[in-house]
Amino acid sequence: MAANIRTSSIKTLRSVRIHDEDPSSLWDISFARNNSETTISPSKSATIDKKEEEDSSAPLVLPALVHPHIHLDKAFIHGSKEYSDLLPVNGSFEEALHFTTLAKKRFHHDDLIKRGNQLVTESVAAGVTAIRGFVEVDSTVKMTCLEVGKRLKKEWKDICQIQLVSFAQDPIFSGQHAEENWRRMEDAVRDPEVDVIGTTPYVESTVEASRKNIEWAISRAWELQKHVDFHIDYNLNENSEAMVWHVLETLRKTGWTASATKARVMLGHCTRLTLFSDDEWGRLASTIHDHDLPVSFVALPTSDLYMAPLPVGENFKRPHVRPRGTLQVLHMIQALSLDTVIGVNNVGNAFTPWGSVDPISLACLGVGIYHGGKPSDVAMLYECISTRARAAIGLTESSVDIGLKTGYQGDLLILPNVDQTGFGQTRPKQTVADIVWDPPEVSTREVVSNGRLLLKNTAMNRLASIAVESIQDS
Ligand SMILES: [Zn+2]
């Protein structure tokens, strides 16, 4: 699929908005000839009050989007004919695990390529140019998902950077297949195309095995100098031991600090932490800060909200009481200085049957979940799906500011103001808040990757009339 996406070089995006203190300013963005470095300068057409018609149509340009956590092999199981008998029945977590195991037994190369390409194509269309993508390695799928992940990584490399996670969704230190699962992971993590070691300590059958799972992943990641990424503390049970403490303790014993390595540590889900007291949160933050631990958290709200415990058993007597828990991203950043981002996790499967691959829809959901309606909060939510996400997965160490500055080398998302109704009615969206409060349709967005415009069917016409000074076909 990637080979079918045409691209074009760009000289200048003229008279566009950027995220700026003065939203009435218009800017020109020029691209260096041989790389994606940009020069940002005030537009000659100056400020907005000149020609109202032209000004209201000036597109907003922001840093492109990032998936810090998404599963490449489990996407769009729902909607595929061959899995039509595996749609949710009671929607429980156990059922999702069971149905996914059954689905995995039917995974094959062409099917994985097809669904993976669908996922990446839809993501790129939405504005995503970097992905941390999980592929499972175990006794059921063996190395098939990894091989497909490697092929997707190679085929998309000029348009979307895929950081590959060799992922143990299954236990590696308990259960019937532990030995084979562990052995296959040992092989997979040494593959030079694998960038990240991912495991799921909570699927182990004992706390002891969960601890061993954490210790193995950290030890192997440190030895190979790769990132490590845990699905962890995914429950709302106050009586369960939070494994995050064991992760931090193991990192400390290993000597894994931000100043010692560029390899990073990601903790995903962590819904159990929403039951922490203020003291526990304080202790968590000070442990990370005092010991210089390069730890980030990724909230996965569409999965977390859906997978929260169902009102069964005792709880069924109160079916209207449905506790939900997902990391409070804005509070974690603002009050605790904990590095936190937001990810899609899954689309079209039993863990997350709802939602799309569009990260802006997640930021929009965050406005409600985190009570983040004020413009500065909304801008931070955009950072969490863009610049902060890129830094958290270790692709950049540059600023998380979404206001473009000269020298910016990342990719861009262009948001033209166009009629979305089909009836000739356009409602201009001019600030990042306008975009996050009410995300524009994916088909209206344009994407610049590696300094080149991705040519959707609409791009040449739309951008020729709005912003692009010079496009050369290639
Ligand atoms: Zn996940």
3D architecture notes:
33% of the residues lie in helices and 20% in strands. The chain has 474 residues and is of the alpha/beta class. The chain has a nine-stranded mixed beta sheet with strand order 4-3-2-5-14-15-16-1-17, with helices on both faces. Strands 6-7-8-9-10-11-12-13 form an eight-stranded parallel beta sheet. The chain starts with 6 loop residues before the first strand and ends with a strand. Helix 6 runs parallel beside helix 7 and helix 11 packs across helix 12. It is globular, with a radius of gyration of 22 Å. Strand 10 (227-232), helix 7 and strand 11 (265-269) form a beta-alpha-beta unit. It folds into two domains: 2-63 and 402-473, no CATH class; 65-372, Metal-dependent hydrolases (TIM Barrel, Alpha-Beta Barrel), CATH 3.20.20. Bound molecules: zinc ion. Zinc ion binds next to strand 6. GO terms for molecular function: hydrolase activity, acting on carbon-nitrogen (but not peptide) bonds, in cyclic amidines. It comes from Talaromyces rugulosus (Penicillium rugulosum). This is Amidohydrolase-related domain-containing protein. Residues 60-452 form the Amidohydrolase-related domain.
Binned, the helix content reads 25-40%
Fourth-tier CATH superfamily name of the largest domain = Metal-dependent hydrolases
Bound molecules: zinc ion
Examine the coordinates and then state which fold CATH places here, giving the name of the CATH topology of the largest domain: TIM Barrel
* Biggest β-sheet strands, sense, barrel: 9 strands, mixed
**CATH architecture label of the largest domain:** Alpha-Beta Barrel
Task: State the end-to-end CA separation.
Answer: 18 Å
Q: Name the beta content range.
A: 15-25%
- Could you name the CATH class of the largest domain? Alpha Beta
Number of strands: 17
**Sheet/helix structural class:** alpha/beta
- Strand sequence of the main sheet, in spatial order? 4-3-2-5-14-15-16-1-17
Instruction: Provide the low-confidence segments as ranges.
Output: none
Gyration radius, rounded: 22 Å
| Total count of helical runs of at least 4 residues | 15
- What would the average pLDDT be, to the nearest integer? 92
Counted up, domains total 2
What is the overall silhouette?
A: globular
GO molecular function, one term: hydrolase activity, acting on carbon-nitrogen (but not peptide) bonds, in cyclic amidines
InterPro entries: Amidohydro-rel (IPR006680), Metal_Hydrolase (IPR032466), Metallo-hydrolase_Enzymes (IPR052349)
Protein name: Amidohydrolase-related domain-containing protein
Organism: Talaromyces rugulosus
